[in-house]
Amino acid sequence: MQHGPAVRRRKLGAELRALRNSAGLTSGEAARLAGWHQSKVSRIETGTSGVKPADVRLLLDVYGVGDAQLRELLLVLSGAGDGTGRHHWWHAYRGVLPPTYRDFISLESQANAMRTLETTVIPGLLQTPEYARAVTKAALEGASEERLDALVEVRLARQDVLRADPPLELSAVLDEAVLRREVGGPGVMARQLTRLVEAARLPQVRLQVLPFSAGAHIGVTGPFVIFSFSRTSDLDVVVLDHLTSSLYLERKEDLRAYLEAFNALSVHALSPEDSLDFIAGAAAGA
Predict the structure, then answer these.
(1) Is residue 110 within 8 Å of 83, Cβ to Cβ?
(2) Which residue intervals define the domain HTH cro/C1-type in the entry (predicted)?
(3) What are the φ and ψ backbone dihedral angles of 80, each rounded to 5 degrees?
(4) pLDDT tens digits for the chain (286 residues)?
(5) Which pTM was predicted?
(6) Beta bridge partners of 240
(7) Integer Cα distance of 71 and 63 in angstroms
């Protein structure tokens, strides 16, 4: 288990090493073509030091990488803009967002698919402003109104990934407790559940409810998120949130275990169609 920035450096380095090998170059030859010392290439490939976007561009040119999507993804991992013109919009909130949250948003902005198990609250990408504020206020007791405003703005800005072209594909399994927990009061919860019904009808969103009647399940250990990337599965990562930090799991055996867990949860959960009816019923009774 590692923190996000370390995982991203390692993943970026591993991908650059694979591209160098594909180009038929040794690390010494790559360094010579880039005008560097060999040790710099080694540090980048092992993830022991950060790397500037300009250095990544240079290496990609040296290796003859012309795949625009792959170049964009690797540049984002190095800290460059995401190619949409938004250029790391979350950096404007650097003063209120911890590094692990900024890293999470960066991964989310470039992933093509996201699978998540939620056991306590509505997924952030589907929250209404009122619900997001109530959740944030409860999690950060004593936070100033100004900070709450900024964090809610971030939560809502993140939702743009569902409207991108192509959009992020979101698959979420929601424990029934997510729908039953009254956050922000009856009115806020009713509007949030109505929003959830609307989201469930989007082609890029797949929602399934895991009812109480399903009993104990593999997800009782807590929520998790799996990010997947279309260009290379080596960049896929599992994110576990804790009170003061996030942990990133990127070993293949960890990814396989969480993918199997998510698939098992999907089997035990209601179908998307039945889940939509279930959510609509909860909204009507809220």
Answers:
(1) no
(2) 16-70
(3) -80, 175
(4) 344 456 677 778 888 999 999 999 999 999 999 999 999 999 999 888 778 889 999 999 999 999 887 888 788 777 665 444 445 788 788 888 887 788 788 888 878 999 999 999 999 999 999 999 999 999 888 889 999 999 999 999 999 999 998 999 999 999 999 999 999 999 999 999 999 999 999 999 999 999 999 888 776 778 999 999 876 666 788 998 765 567 888 888 999 999 999 999 999 999 999 999 999 999 987 6
(5) 0.80
(6) 247
(7) 11
Q: Which residue has the tokens 């992933």?
A: 111
Q: How far apart (Å, rounded) are the C-alpha atoms in residues 163 and 160? A: 5
Are the beta carbons of 199 and 126 closer than 8 angstroms? yes
190-211 exposure pattern, b = at least 16 Cβ within 10 A, e = fewer:
bbbbbbbbebbeeebbbbbbbb
Specify whether the CB–CB gap between 204 and 168 falls below 8 A: yes
Q: Report strand pairing: 113-118 vs 205-210.
A: unpaired
Which pair of structure tokens corresponds to residue 80?
């460059």
